[in-house]
Design brief:
Blueprint lengths: L1 H13 L15 E10 L5 H6 L3 E6 L3 E8 L2 E8 L4 E8 L2 E7 L1 H9 L4 E12 L2 E11 L5 E10 L21 E8 L5 E11 L14 E2 L2 H7 L3
Parallel strand pairs: 6-12
Antiparallel strand pairs: 1-2, 1-11, 2-3, 3-4, 4-5, 5-6, 7-8, 8-9, 9-10, 10-11
């Protein structure tokens, strides 16, 4: 149960896995497949078995959807670029939950995070066939001291909504599509996402519809239902 609860908690970090009033029809639409790897001494084998190894990102007209399959079920996040909201969908051992976040809630949560310096470097490399630029995130404590560093690689070779990263803490001012990034899991562990394949195709609006059968809960209610 401890491993299950930790896995569910980490999923919130993953999908908290990203806009203008209306996305341009000329913007990229398609499917991106990312591999996920883990680093850090605080992640045991049982926990890694439950964690996702692949993320699929669907980018449509005004919406983004991130989908992952874990050892305990399917997890998705649907992001509305027009209204700047997101809905996290968790299917955990047959139990279906939906957590909705308004634009105000997302901004409030971001305001509670530590300050950071975000540096767009001149360093580039190719990922999944696209030239990407490196971003370094230097997270600071209350005294202004750097306590941690993260990074990401984004491309401008695929035209996307300029606000596509609106819900990504520290990266929300970057106009570009991230094809590689890392994120802290809160216990010394790190998750690394790297795009393996980019497929250009039209994504139906049905892909972003919230399915029936999901119980709307808050994050706290969900964790309490699993004994934490």
């Amino acid at each position: 149960m401890k491993n299950l609860v930790k896995s569910i908690a980490v999923l919130f970090l993953i999908v908290t896995l990203s806009h203008s009033a209306e996305a341009s029809k000329k913007n990229f639409q398609g499917k991106i497949t990312y591999s996920i790897t883990y680093e850090g001494n605080n992640i045991n084998d049982a926990q890694q078995e439950m964690m996702p190894k692949t993320m699929i990102k669907y980018i449509g007209n005004g919406f983004v959807k991130n989908v992952m399959f874990t050892g305990v079920g399917k997890q998705s996040t649907v992001i509305d670029l027009k209204n700047k909201t997101k809905t996290t969908l968790l299917n955990v051992m047959g139990q279906k939950f939906a957590i909705e976040n308004t634009a105000e809630e997302i901004q409030k949560e971001m305001g509670q995070k530590p300050d950071a310096d975000v540096e767009v470097t001149d360093e580039t490399k190719e990922i999944a066939g696209y030239t990407c630029t490196k971003v370094i995130i230097k997270i600071k404590n209350d005294n202004g001291e750097i306590t941690n560093e993260g990074y990401g690689w984004f491309t401008n070779e695929l035209k996307v909504d300029p606000d596509i990263n609106f819900s990504q803490i520290y990266l929300n001012k970057i106009d570009g599509l991230f094809l590689e990034f890392s994120m802290e899991m809160g216990d010394g562990g790190t998750m690394k996402f790297v795009a393996k394949e980019v497929e250009k195709k039209k994504i139906s609006a049905k892909e972003f519809a919230i399915p029936e059968g999901y119980k709307k809960v808050t994050r706290e209610e969900l964790m309490n239902s699993f004994g934490q």
